[in-house]
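Run log // design_07
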């Protein structure tokens, strides 16, 4: 079972979670609507019945996890114009990392995908960038990388 906490999602991320939840509900309904395999009344249990029970158990777990996420979802919104000079959730940040330019978008943990340049607000880099402004320098002690913030933008719809 997934931990109860706030889950920060973009509008697109929230749509994706809702879509997955509805698809899984439909899948569960279709699995339980048809003729279910019977339990044999001997020492042997029908393997088809066991497989169905296992599938339904896994679906129930995934559905429960998605319900917790949806119940605790917080939509990432752009901050007021006066606050957009600091890195926050939803910000796209251009940094100079030891002489190399990198661009990251700060998202919640469920949407993080470093290969797409999306890093979690709970990741080490995400944490040290939050609240910082253009020109500020921060260092990540675990890997020795230094980050100088060059640009901050919010492109959240």
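design_07 sequence
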């Amino acid at each position: 079972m997934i931990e109860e906490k706030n889950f920060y999602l973009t509008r697109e991320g929230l749509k994706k979670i809702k879509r997955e939840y509805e698809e899984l509900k439909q899948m569960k309904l279709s699995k339980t609507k048809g003729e279910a395999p019977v339990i044999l009344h001997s020492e042997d249990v029908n393997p088809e019945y066991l497989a169905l029970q296992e599938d339904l158990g896994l679906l129930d777990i995934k559905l429960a996890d998605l319900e917790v996420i949806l119940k605790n979802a917080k939509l990432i919104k752009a901050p007021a114009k006066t606050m957009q000079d600091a890195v926050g959730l939803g910000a796209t940040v251009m940094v100079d990392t030891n002489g190399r330019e990198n661009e990251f978008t700060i998202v919640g943990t469920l949407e993080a995908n470093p290969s797409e340049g999306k890093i979690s607000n709970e990741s080490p880099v995400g944490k040290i960038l939050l609240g910082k402004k253009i020109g500020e320098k921060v260092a990540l002690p675990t890997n020795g990388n230094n980050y100088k913030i060059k640009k901050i933008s919010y492109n959240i719809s």
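The radius of gyration is 22 Å.
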